[in-house]
Amino acid sequence: MKKIYLTYFLLIVLSACGSKKTDSVSLNGEIKGLGNDTLYLYGADELYNRMDTLIAKDGKFSATLSTDTLVAVWLLFSDGTEYPLFMDKRDKIQIKGSAAELTSLDITGNICNEELTTFQNSLKGLAKPSDKVLEEKAEAFISSHHSSLASIYLLEKYFVQKPRPDYALIKKLTDRMTGKLKDRPYIDELLNRIQEEEKVSVGKTAPYFHLPNIKGKDISRSDFTGKYLLIHFWASWDQQSREANAGLRQVYKKEQKNKNFALLGISLDIDRKMWKETIKKDTLSWEQTCDFTGFQTEAAKQFAIQTLPANVLLNPDGRIEGKNMSKEAIEKKLKEIEKDKNANH
C-alpha cells in the first residue's frame, strides 16, 4: 500500500514539475558579429518587474524564463541599443540578427514578434524614409493590428516619443485598440497623460502657480496680469534647454522694454548651485524660478510637462495661446501682437 501511495505522490510531483517547465519561455538567440557579450532583459512595465542577464558566447545566447501572461520586455545590448521583445508562457523565441544592425532583428516565436519583424522588414526597402512616411506606415499597422503588443511599441516609438506629440492622433490610435490592449498598464498611463494634456491645451485657462525666484521671492502667474507671458521650462543639465535659452536671450534682448510681454523661466533643476551658475554663465536676465524638485515641480505637473525644453504662451487673460513654439514662431507672434496693438490705437 505504501508503494502505491509513494508512486501516486511521485506522479503528482513529476506532473507539477513538468507543468512548470511547459509553462516556461524558451529563448535562443544568435547575433552574428556580437562575439562574447552580456545582454539584459527587463520589463517594459510592471507586468514583468525584473531584470534577467543573458550571457552571449560567440554571438549565441539562450535562457529559460517564466511569465504568467503575455509581456513586453526590452532586450538591452552592451552598446545601449534596446530592442522590443514579446513573450508568453510556452513560447519558443528565436532571435536572429547582426551586430551591425541591432535595430532590426528577426524574432519569431509568437505572433507579436513576427508582426513586428514583418513591419521592420518592410522598412528596409524604403532607403531613407521621411518621418512622415514612417508615421504613416506605423499608423496603418496600428489601425490593422488592434490587439497586437507590437502596436503599443510602434505607438510609443513613432508618436509618443516625438518632441511635440500629437495627443489627438495618439488618442485616436488608442481608441482603435481592443480592450485587451487598453487594459495594459502602459496604455492606462498614456491615457491619463493625454487627459492631463487636454486640461492645458491651447484655449484653456492656465493653472495658477507660484515658485521662488533666485532671491527666494514667490513668483506667480498673477504677477504678469495684462501681459503676454511666455513660460519656458528648462534645466541646466539639459543641453537642448540651454540651446533654447540662447534663442530666447535674443528674443528678450529685443522685447525687454515691451510692456505687453514678459518671459519667465521655470527650471526643473535639483541642484541650486548648478542652477545659479548656469543662469549667470548663460546670462539669463529674465525672471527665473525653481523649487529644486525636478519633474515633481507642481508647475510641471500642472502644465503636463513630459520633456525639456518646453514652453507655454499665455495671453493677457491667462489663457493658453500657444505651446512649444520655436524661436521663429515666438517672434512672429510678437509681431502680430504689436500689429494688433497699433491697429487698436
TrEMBL record:
Q: Which GO terms describe its cellular component?
A: cell envelope
Family matches, as PROSITE patterns: PROKAR_LIPOPROTEIN (PS51257), THIOREDOXIN_2 (PS51352)
Taxonomy, superkingdom? Bacteria
Q: Which residues form the Thioredoxin domain?
A: 200-339
User: What keywords sit in the KW lines?
Assistant: Cytochrome c-type biogenesis, Disulfide bond, Redox-active center
Q: Where in the cell is it found?
A: Cell envelope
InterPro entries from the xrefs?
Answer: DUF4369, Thioredoxin-like_fold, Thioredoxin-like_sf, Thioredoxin_domain, Thioredoxin_ResA/DsbE_sf
The biological processes this protein is annotated with in GO are: cytochrome complex assembly
Q: Name one Pfam family in it.
A: Thioredoxin_8
Any idea what this protein is called? Alkyl hydroperoxide reductase/ Thiol specific antioxidant/ Mal allergen
Organism for this UniProt entry:
Bacteroides helcogenes (strain ATCC 35417 / DSM 20613 / JCM 6297 / CCUG 15421 / P 36-108)
Ranked from the top, the taxonomy reads: Bacteria, Pseudomonadati, Bacteroidota, Bacteroidia, Bacteroidales
